[in-house]
Amino acid sequence: MEWIILVLIGLTAGTLGALIGLGGGIIIVPALLYFGTSTSLLTNISPQVAVGTSLVIMIFTGLSSTLAYMKHKTVDYRSGLLFFLGSGPGAIVGAWVNQSLNIVAFNIYFGAFMIFISLVLMVRDKLKPFPFTKSGLKRSFQDAEGNTYEYSYQPIVAIGISFIVGFTSGLFGIGGGSLMVPAMILLFLFPPHVAVATSMFMIFLSALVSSVTHVMLGNVNWLYALALIPGAYIGAKLGAYLNKKVKSDSLVNMLRIVLIIVGIRLIYQGLVG
């Protein structure tokens, strides 16, 4: 039974992560914590193990969706590598800070973070790009349909934001796309589909770094990871495909409601635990 649950968690996380650009960890970590602390289906799930295991899955989710987006030619590799200059070190720092959190502190911080992400998802389509995005490093991108997009960003600002994204990735076991995609769209004028694809490329690179750190710290349950990987890999391909075919507004609305509910539950658990 536990294997079926883990495969379904991986499939759901991979699909939603690639479709919206979140990376999937925002689903995997709370799911592992719930089944590991509130049921007898999963055992030995601490915050550190949930985060470390999730980040190993993010490698395969990020790789799968990046390969799919490569076929659609929507990945801005140059920008993704520049963002990684910030997210890589941030992921390592986040992984080390994670070691100092007990279950009570982790539940409170992660619950608050999930509510914050739900608010970001709520307003990201209503916000307008900031005016200073007209200056900085100029980028021109042509997609597979021949459409050309112009956007720009300040490298120092981009690396600074990426460091924060990487830090939250290593700390909470999430991909970081929940923060990076809105930043790329609002601050740097990225086309939404290019922002999602480039975010997944950066998530793949960051997950490699942060997961290696968590492996060194002994925070990975390899049996659970092996059960999660197939579903996450297939789900990421499905999500990347759906990203080109359907509007994700209804899914985003549903996801942010779930994030608020789960976030409140985690905070409550932390306060009463």
From TrEMBL:
Keywords of the record: Cell membrane, Membrane, Transmembrane, Transmembrane helix
Membrane topology: Multi-pass membrane protein
Coarse class of the protein's main subcellular location: membrane
Taxonomic superkingdom: Bacteria
Keyword Transmembrane: yes
Transmembrane segments: 6-37, 49-69, 81-97, 104-123, 156-174, 186-210, 222-242, 254-271
Family listed: Belongs to the 4-toluene sulfonate uptake permease (TSUP) (TC 2.A.102) family.
Name of the protein described by the UniProt record: Probable membrane transporter protein
Species of the source: Bacillus spongiae
